[in-house]
Amino acid sequence: MAVRSADQRQPTPWPRFGSGGLEAPYVRRLVDFMNARLYMADHRALLLLKCMISSDLPGHLQDQASEAILAFRYSMLEAGSDSMTLWTENHQVTAAAAEYLAGQLFPGRIFSNDGRSGARHQRAAQAQLMIWLSDRFRFGFSEWLSSTCLAYDLAALALLIDHAADEALVERAKMVMDIGLLDLALHSFNRRFAPSMGRAHAEQVMHPEAAEIAPIWHSAFGQSPELEIDKLTSLFVAREKYQVPEAIFELATAQPVRRVLSSQGLDVDEVRDELRRHPFHPRSQSLDLIRFWWGQQAITTPETIVDSARAMRVFELQDSRILAPMRRYLKMPNPMLISTLRTLNPITSGKALNRANVQTISTSNYLLSSVQRYQPGGFGDQQHVWHASLRGNIEVFGNHPGSTQLHQENRPPTPSHWVGNGINPDLAQHHNVLLAQYDLRGRKGRFEGPRQELVHIHFPFVLFDQTRLGANWVAGRRGRGYIGILGTHRFELISETELVQRGQRTGYAVLVGDEEEYTSFAFFLEQLKQYRLRLSGDHLTLTSPLGRFDLTWGKDFKVNGHVIDCQYPRYEAPGVQVPRNPDEIEVIGSGHALRLEWGAGIRESTEMLRDSRVYDDID
Q1: DSSP, residue by residue, 406-457
Q2: What is the pLDDT of residue 321?
C-alpha cells in the first residue's frame, strides 16, 4: 500500500527563475562557490542542480551552471586539493546525491576533473548511495541525532526522491528518510530538537528553534516555513514527492510521557566484522572499511590508522588541507604507526563517533537526553553528551570546556568552550535522573591546548520563572517544569547563564520533574534538598527519598543495587520496538502503522482497525 500522509499540506514550491530570490546573482554565487571548492561546496552543487532541473534558467546561466557541474570534484577518490570534507557521513550522501543527479543530467558528457562520462559517475554514485542507505537503515546514523547533519541528510534525500530515475534507489531513500524523521519525532520536545548529539554547534544547542533542522521539523510536522533558498534544507521544504507517513506524524505531534532508548552507529572496532557479515552489502576491502570509518571520522584511532595512512598514499590525499596534520606520519612503516599513535595520543582521536546508546525522556513540560557511558576519559570533539529542555526555550547542558591547537579553515575549532568535551565524563541516566563524573587527570595529548581543571553548566537564569542557588546545588522552574542539579563541589556563578565547578575529580546529578510528579516547585525543592551526592575515588553515589544511584567509573551503573544495562536496542520506545542491526522496522502510531522491510523493498502504511494507544505512562 502506498504511504499516505496525515499532513496533506502542499510543500512550498521551488521558485522559478526571477522570483522568490532566485535571480542571476544567486545562481552565480552557487557557481563561484563550487568552482572554488570551498567547504560545503557539495551543498551548493545540490542547490544548483535543483535550479537547473526545476527553475528554467536562462541559457547563459544554464551554461555556467553546467560548466561548474562538469568540473566539480565529487569524491575523495578524485584528484584535487581543497577545503571539502567529502568523507564524513553527511557529506558522503550530499556529494553522492550531487554526483548521481549530475551524471543523470549529463550522461554523455565528460566530467573534466577525472575524465569519466556522466553515465559512469551516475553508476558509481548509485552504488555508493545504496550502500550508504543500507548502512543507515541497519546501523543508524554515526552522527547521531545531530540537528545539523541530520538536516543535511534529509535535504539530500529529498532531492534524490524528487529527481532520481532509479525506482529502487528512490524507494530506499524514502525508507531512510522515514527513519531520520522517526528519530526527529521521538527525540523532540515542544517543537524543538535538542537531544544528545554526535555533532553539535553551540548556537544550535542554545537556540534549537533556529537550528538547521528547525525548518524540516516544521515542514514535516507543523506549519510549512518560509522557503530560504540559500539553505540546503530548502530542498526538503520544497520537496515534491515525499510524504511523511501518518504513523511518524502521529508520534511527532503527540507529547505523551515518553521514554526512548535507542542505539545509533557502530563502535570503531565493530566495523570490520559488521561489514563482513552485512546481509545486503557484505564487504571487507580496505577502501570499504575506510569509507565507513572516515564517515564516522575515525581517521586517527589504533584500529584505523594503518588503513587511513594507506588510503592517503593510494589516493594521493597528502595535499588535502584538511588532512594536513597526518602528512608527517605517512612515511612511517605501518608497524610503527600504531605505536606512534598511542605515544602521541592525538586529540583528533576524539573526532571518532563510536556507537551511541541514547536515552531521552520527555513529558509536556521537560526533556532529558543523554548518551550512556560514552568513551569516558577520552577526548571529545563535537559530541553533545547530555541536554535538558524546559518550555520557554530553556536549554540546560554541561561539558568540560576543551581547546585544540588545530585550526580549521572551514569552521571554528573543536572542542571549545561549549562544544564537545576536552575530556569526556562517565555519564549514565535512569529515567529522569542523570549522573556524570569527570576525571581530568589523564595524559595530555598531541594537539591538545591548555586543559582547564573545571566543568561548567549552561543554565539560563534569566529565562526561568523561578530559580534557587545554593553552595553546591541549583534549581529552576519554567511553567510546570522543574530542573535541579547537585554538585560534588561548590558551584560558582560566572554569569547569568553559566555555573562552574572546579577540580580534577568532580561530579554532578541532574533531576527533572514537573507538577504531575511534585505538585509544586516548593515541594520539588524540598525533595531536592533531601538528595545527597558523594564522590569517593571513582565512585559517585546519589541517595534520595526515591532510591540510590551508584556510578563507578568505567564499571557498573546501579539503581537500588540493580545493575542497569546501558547497551540499548536500536529502538525501545512507545510505538517502536526494534533490535540492533534490523532488517525490518515497524512504527505504530495512534491510528496508523508503517512497515519498512529493506531486503524486499517494502514500505507500506496501514490504518489500524482498532484503537491502539501506544503512549503508556512510564513505570
Answers
A1: ---SSS--SS-SSSS-SSPPEEEEETTEEEEEEE--SPP-TTB-PPPSEEEE
A2: 66
CB 431 within 8 A of CB 361: yes
Chain centroid offset of residue 311 CA? 26
If you ran DSSP here, which 8-state letter would residue 227 be given?
P
Minimal CA–CA distance to 45: which of 94, 116, 112? 94
Angle in degrees, CA 376, 355, 277, rounded to 5: 140
- Dihedral sign of CA atoms 32, 38, 42, 46 in order: negative
Domains of the chain by residue range: 24-254, 268-350, 357-563
**Chain-centre distance for alpha carbon 484:** 27
- CA pair distance 259, 187, nearest whole angstrom: 9
Contact 499, 456 (CB under 8 A): yes
Whole-angstrom Cα Rg for the chain:
24
pLDDT along the chain (619 residues), means of 10: 49 89 96 96 98 96 98 91 90 98 98 97 98 98 98 98 98 98 97 96 96 97 92 97 97 91 98 97 95 96 92 76 73 86 92 98 97 98 98 98 83 92 98 98 94 98 98 98 98 97 98 95 96 97 94 97 98 97 97 97 88 41
Compute the C-alpha angle 197/203/208, nearest 5°: 65
How far apart are alpha carbons 267 and 352 in whole angstroms? 9
For β-strands 426-430 and 498-502, DSSP reports them as: unpaired
Q: In angstroms, how far is the first alpha carbon of the chain from the final one? A: 36
DSSP-assigned states of every residue in 279-305: SSS---SHHHHHHHHHHTT-SSSTTTH
DSSP SS3 for 593: strand
Q: How far apart are CA 519 and CA 507, in angstroms?
A: 28
| pTM for the whole structure | 0.95
Name the burial class of residue 77, with classes exposed (0-12), middle (13-18) and buried (19+) by CB atoms within 10 angstroms of its CB: middle
